[in-house]
Fold this protein.
Amino acid sequence: MITFKNFNYKYIESKQLNIENLSLEINKGECVLFTGASGCGKTTIMRVLNGLAPEFFDGGFSGELKVAHLNIGDRLKEFSKVVGSVFQNPKNQFFNLDSTSELAFSMENYGYSKAEIKNRIDEVISNFSAEYLLERNILELSGGEKQKLAFMASMMLDADIYVLDEITSNLDLKSIKLISSIIETLKKQGKTIVVAEHRIYYLKDLIDRMYIIKDGKLVHEVKKEQLSDFDSRACQTRQIDLTKVELGKREKRIFKENYLSIEQLDYKVNTRQVSLNNVSFSSSKIYTIIGDNGCGKTTFANALCGLHKSKNKITLNGKELSKKGSIKSAFQVMQDVNYQLFTNQVEKEIKLGSKNLELFDEVVDRLNIRKFLKRHPNTLSGGEKQRVAIASALLSDKRILIFDEPTSGLDYVNMIELSRLIEKIAEQDVVIFIITHDYEFLCQISDEVLYFDKQGLKERIEVNENNKKKILEIMS
């Protein structure tokens, strides 16, 4: 179904090969995983498989690549009939503002009848248990809901091959279970599935092989029968079994109680009214916020920062904050960092608004972005952009730091380095909130979990050995 033979690919702007001497075969009905550090070449492999490279991502190639009956360089229109694609950032593949039109879009382009389109929409919606996503404004969907919609849209043409690029990065563990079941169903139907991922645990019972990529090269192949003995840490990949995740070793920090106090915070999540009253948070403490996709975690963060309409009474270190004061006191790294990249150079981007430049070298080196300092931010991969935005936050010298899914594009090594940096920043008088579905990262970094449901803050849970299992069960 898919054959790489001594295949090389290099983007026009790249100084080195992005894929180097790749030779492998993927048979019909197989599920194959590519993993490795951010920027290692996984996304480039996905782009040549779905025809986006070289048509939209200019570059040169040598060697052989066959995808079904197609060759690299064939028209994208031909690839779209054979390959269904889901990207890390779903907004990159949306063409409409309402969800039902988005589902219908690909079939409309190929002239299917209204009845055929409706029947297929009903079938796909049923597979995803996603009736609630019909007739919705795409701009009002949560990150996880957008990702579900993108996956459903990719299935509308009933392609033979599915290329999935970091599709779980913004999903909660419950949604990931659903994605896993859909992949299982597709595999039973004889579909060929190629996945690029950092979070690999949900694929352990689905994949036939796992390939570890480094600097564009295939450095390690793990067969299905070898997965149970796979040493994630030795290969510096994410954990393949979440029950084996260990708590990070935390440095002792002195907490200032009631540093941030919320006497009242009333805001709306879509049409739901949510209220938080008489809750307080300590400085130097790291809080992780968990909850199902769409429950309002990001809306809470926006309201706290003064970016979402709310009725509030909030004090920071004894001083009541106005809306302007909330904006001045907080820095949020958004789920989609493309909204907050403003300059034409990574170094300028990091220094823009930074007030704590004495940590510049340490932050840049620990996040492994020094080699990108002279690059344009938009030429970076999703995980690399994420690290640039995180660097800006860590150097901002703000008293409230909010990270919305900061590990969505991060590999294991960069996740650990980010953890260490956040812990160092937490030694100062700063309150840190991290919205996350990443159980591995939570165990590494968190002091206390804030569990949100549709009514607001439901429970606070200290992160320790006794509560690990409970937290995993809530997230699952």
Notes: The mean pLDDT is 93. The CA atoms of residues 191 and 473 lie 31 Å apart. The two ends are 34 Å apart (CA to CA). The chain has 15 helices and 20 strands.
